[in-house]
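Hi V.,

Quick status before I head out on leave. The structure for the redesign project is tokenized and pasted below; the design run finished overnight.
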């Protein structure tokens, strides 16, 4: 079935995984002994890049980037520990991008 879906269009690449975690869009779901934990999913190939602060974008764009990342972390993090880890990742991403 997966092979047939992958042949439908060159941009569609589906893979079947059997395990205790699954990713869907921006969400990572982990099953630990029957308890589901959710967090933000980061694609392995994606680099932590955002619009540089020295670019010629309107100023509200930069605050929206931060607000959207934090909002996603709050919505997708099922525990405070997971949220704190994501918040640190957001901060590092912003420091990395100047």
């Amino acid at each position: 079935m997966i092979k047939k879906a992958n042949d439908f269009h060159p941009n569609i690449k589906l893979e079947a995984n059997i395990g205790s975690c699954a990713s869907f869009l921006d969400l990572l779901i982990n099953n630990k002994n029957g308890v589901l934990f959710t967090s933000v999913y980061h694609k392995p190939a994606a680099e932590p890049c955002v619009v540089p602060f020295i670019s010629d974008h309107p100023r509200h764009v930069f605050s929206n980037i931060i607000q959207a990342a934090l909002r996603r972390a709050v919505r997708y993090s099922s525990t405070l520990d997971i949220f704190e880890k994501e918040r640190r990742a957001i901060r590092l991403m912003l420091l990395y991008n100047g």
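Above is the designed sequence. The first strand starts at residue 21 and ends at 24.

G. will cover questions while I'm gone.

Best,
W.
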